[in-house]
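Human: I wish I could look at a protein chain and see how it folds. This is the protein in question:
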Amino acid sequence: MDANSQSAEVCLEACAPLHCGAMRAFSKREVREFYRRLAETRPIPQTELEFINPFTLLVAVVLSAQATDTGVNKATPALFALADTPAKMLALGEERVVELIRTIGLFRTKAKNLIALSRILVEQYGGEVPHDRAALETLPGVGRKTANVVLNVAFGEPTIAVDTHIFRVANRTGLAPGKTPLAVEMALEACTPAQYKRYAHHWLILHGRYVCTARKPDCPNCVVADLCRYGAKTGPVEVIAARAAGGRAAGGEPSALADPPPSRGTHRRPPQATPKSRANSPRGRSSRPA
């Protein structure tokens, strides 16, 4: 959703070594554990873009291209106060929209797209945001990523929008490597358990934004460090080693994934032979005569 300060080319270059096929693939159990830990840190994650309704969400996501969520959130309150529907956006006009979003990158192109998509929504969809990927992608300024975000956040669809952060996390960790955002999206769709798909986009993007950052990932504080395939983890070596060792069973598998030890009640001791009575043993007999 928000654009990282580095370009997509830098991200692709950084992830290029991960496409060589040498990285060990995640098992299904590891994928479940990966998401379980991210979910534990943020049980119900939310988008950081501020919005009022599906239309204002669509506008915010369109504005977030090549910009930060923080920057978008500074500009949209004034815009949404005047135009929180497609009809109101049209009435506002392109020049007024330009003035309101001037602090956001590519503001002139984005203002033009907002007016154009608002006109289409009014004329073809009764002023409503369509609940359909193909229809969304026909709107000016809306691509597959934006459509996925709107479907997920506004309509609760289990879609996974791949931005710079998710592209980096999926490749760096080895969760779902791919050379293009679409390839990563397809890989994530295939491997993500159904129970985690609804919020997978948010967990991955927030992890990439605050922990698995582009220049220096915070590996010592990463909850999935022992599952991650990244070979150049940052931080004190002893901290990384301790986290990995603490999260692994004796066989090398993360402890949360290892089979639990057998319960004490499942194995009974074999019955022991009844000891012979001392009265019947030679040593137990009295030496005195009868």
